[in-house]
Specification:
Layout (H helix, E strand, L loop, with lengths): L1 E6 L4 H13 L3 E7 L19 E5 L5 H9 L3 E4 L6 H6 L2 H19 L6 E7 L22 H20 L3 E6 L1 E3 L8 H10 L4 E4 L5 E6 H14 L5 E4 L4 E3 H11 L7 E4 L14 H4 L9 H14 L1 H10 L1 H11 L3
The structure holds nicotinamide-adenine-dinucleotide (NAD) and thymidine-5'-diphosphate.
């Protein structure tokens, strides 16, 4: 059995990756280390929790006593665990530095002690490049992160690289664009807007709605990671972009259409502080290795909306019964 340590596997992308990995690799045993913060939920893993090839460990990546031995026992580490929401990093950045930077440091230190480690995948983000007015970011571009989340991720991204350059830890760094799909926490634009629309609540569009994000289906992300784990080159950075650059206002109209609602639900609100105008990833490097996104955005978005419609059991408890979620929504958007 190949021993794979996934961190943050109870979150959105991590849980999709765990499910994908168990389905795709019969010879993988996945250990899943997750702190179960507000964003990490056992519900995300409901269908794989009892799989004998999946072991769930409830713990913090910053805790070397817990995380260290798991890293030391692994053949591959796929490190997703992070604080991930830009708006929360604007409200309070401390936990972003703690988890995203220090947590990565703890894992990388342990990786130094594992001579049989074959791959350490540092999951970074397109946000490390900062706002890109024109053209597309390539892997060698300067990093210009512009919000505390992106800056923390950039710190971790370069720290991971340094552990390859200095200590020969078999690191690859991946920078993906905005993911969408099932099990995304309803604070990010797509699940927030879909679930609001289902309840005829307004959808808060920041600024003029002209900001552009490049959307990547989470399963296309998983397939890219699988390819890179097997054929990536240590010390290298790989962009993973969906090639679907969409303005928020257009995305919002399409979501409302799929949800069977009208544009009257759109509520223009004050812009996010330091709001990056546009992200755009050049993906020639990954495409040269044989990867192509397989999910057309129209289809993927329609299916994603349908997933939230069909899985109210998953999101209603968060939106209706989680006091921390309600407090966050009120702090971010004001009282309804
Ligand atoms: P998420 O917020 O849905 O999940 C994060 C997970 O990490 C949760 O399960 C949480 O419990 C866990 N976690 C947080 N702190 C932890 C700690 N100290 N110890 C152990 N576990 C901890 O995030 P996501 O959207 O799935 O993103 C996963 C990774 O992908 C992150 O590293 C993020 O920066 C990166 N990324 C995300 C996107 C995106 O669009 N969502 C795009 C590019 C890169
Ligand atoms: P988000 O899903 O938070 O991802 P990121 O900030 O990592 O790109 O936001 C995606 C885009 O949607 C971003 O330009 C901000 C915008 N947005 C809104 O207009 N309203 C909202 O309520 C949210 C959460 C995001």
């Amino acid at each position: 059995m190949t021993k794979v340590l996934v961190t943050g596997g109870a979150g959105f992308i991590g849980s999709n990756f765990v499910r994908y990995a168990l389905q795709t690799h019969a010879d993988w045993h996945v250990t899943n280390l997750d702190k179960l913060t507000y964003a990490g939920r056992r519900e995300n893993l409901h269908d794989v929790m009892d799989d004998p090839r999946h072991s769930f460990v409830h713990g913090d990546i910053c805790n070397a006593a817990v995380a260290g031995p798991l890293v030391e026992a692994a053949d591959y580490v796929v490190h997703f665990a992070a604080e991930t929401h830009v708006d929360r990093s604007i409200m309070a950045a401390g936990v972003f530095l703690k988890t995203d930077v220090e947590g990565s440091f703890v894992l990388l230190e342990a990786a130094r002690r594992n001579p049989k480690l074959q791959r350490f995948v540092q999951i970074s983000t397109d946000e490390v490049y900062g706002s890109v007015p024109e053209g597309s970011s390539t892997e060698t571009d300067e990093l210009r992160p512009r919000n505390p989340y992106a800056a923390s991720k950039a710190g971790a991204d370069r720290l991971a690289y340094s552990y390859w350059a200095t200590h020969d830890v078999p690191v690859i760094v991946t920078r993906a664009s905005n993911n969408y799909g099932p099990y995304q926490f309803p604070e990010k634009i797509i699940p927030l807007f879909v679930t609001n629309a289902m309840d005829d609540l307004q959808v808060p569009l920041y600024g003029d709605g002209g900001n552009v994000r490049d959307w990547l289906h989470v399963l296309d992300h998983c397939r890219a990671l699988d390819l890179l784990i097997h054929t990536g080159k240590n010390g290298e950075v790989y962009n993973i972009g969906g090639g679907n650059e969409v303005k928020n206002v257009d995305l919002t109209h399409t979501i409302l259409e799929h949800a069977g609602k009208t544009a009257s639900l759109i509520k223009p609100v004050a812009d996010r502080k330091g709001h990056d105008r546009r992200y755009s990833l050049g993906t020639a490097k990954l495409q040269g290795m044989g990867w192509q996104p397989q999910v057309p955005f129209d289809e993927g978005l329609r299916e994603t909306v349908a997933w939230y419609q069909a899985n109210e059991w998953w999101w209603r408890p968060i939106k209706e019964r989680d006091p921390a979620y309600k407090a966050y929504i009120e702090a971010q958007y004001g009282k309804r």
